[in-house]
Amino acid sequence: MNAHDHDAWTHGHVYLGAGHRHAERRTRLATSVTAAFMLVEIVCGVLFGSMALLADGVHMATHVGALGLAALAYGLARRHAQDTRFTFGSGKFGDLAAFTSAIVLGLLAVGVAAESVHRFFAPTAVAYREALPIAALGLAVNIVSAFILQTPHGHSHGHDHAHAQGHGRHHDHNLRAAYVHVLADAATSVLAIAALAAGWLWGAAWLDPAVGVIGALVIASWAYGLVRDSALVLLDAEDDPGLAAEIRAMIERELGARVSDLHLWRLGPGHRGLIVSLLSPDQLTADRVRDALRTRYAGLSHVTVEIEICADCSAL
Q1: Phi, psi at residue 178, to the nearest 5°?
Q2: Is the same domain home to 74 and 213?
Q3: Domain that holds residue 306
């Protein structure tokens, strides 16, 4: 077999999202915007001796790290897209980054909650006039970053197309992780502004730690959802039980074969792998099964079909 014949029987394993380069550019831009504000806060904190500014700058550094990790994952996935060491491509770099980022977000929530509870019992003086404009500026930066990272949501055009896209489960977890970090910071900024304003105007000092606890619970909830979803992808869990059941039913109803084994999992944003073993009473070919599946379900990027011909499958 010559090289040309070999190429005709092989296929690539590039399973990056359709908007991979665009998402990478947006993440890098959001990282730069957040990092610039972080440096301003830290420098001003040192120059003016403000612990409030310095502490918020260090806090924002964790989000810069998370955004930078997301950008790095996009770069690594693109750089290793053709690397044959990755059996099913490099599409899961983003899920690995999302999982790591979610763990950091969860730890941050624990730290904020612990500090807030401590301040209930050991209140500290808060420089409301100094902290309030910084919180407002931080919120503005987060809104800009969220706008940069926001992904427009498309609309399904028909039942089969919706299933081809996996019932909306083709999200880029890496971009989602970056977006959640920005939203978490924005949420805490909104709560902080409300608490600082109340403390400044009415002396309600207890609101500051109370808001800290509420913000920590919200962030922990987001982190849990992100850890769960990205971990399932990393563990090759069944991507969509409903879609798997529909594929099984379609094969048995339309192709007349019995499904003895079926595995459906996510390879990367918008890409799924499928391995299916069939028992067929006639000379059903793997090409015919693959063509039928890919015609109906566009999101199946890597399909492996095994067929065993049996004289009377109904007797099994």
Answers
A1: -60, -40
A2: yes
A3: 241-315
**What gap in Å lies between CA 210 and CA 208, rounded to an integer?**
5
Reported as a single tens digit per residue, the pLDDT across 6-55 is: 344 445 666 677 788 888 899 999 999 889 888 887 787 677 655 555 56
Q: Residue 284 half-sphere exposure, CB side, CA atoms within 13 Å?
A: 26
Q: Which residues contact 197 (CB under 8 A, 6 or more apart)?
A: 132
Q: Hey, which residues does 263 pair with through a beta bridge? A: 275
**Statement to judge: residues 45 and 67 lie in one domain:** yes
Domain shared by 252 and 215, yes or no:
no
This prediction's pTM: 0.77
Same domain, 45 and 165: yes
Residue 256 and residue 284 in one domain: yes
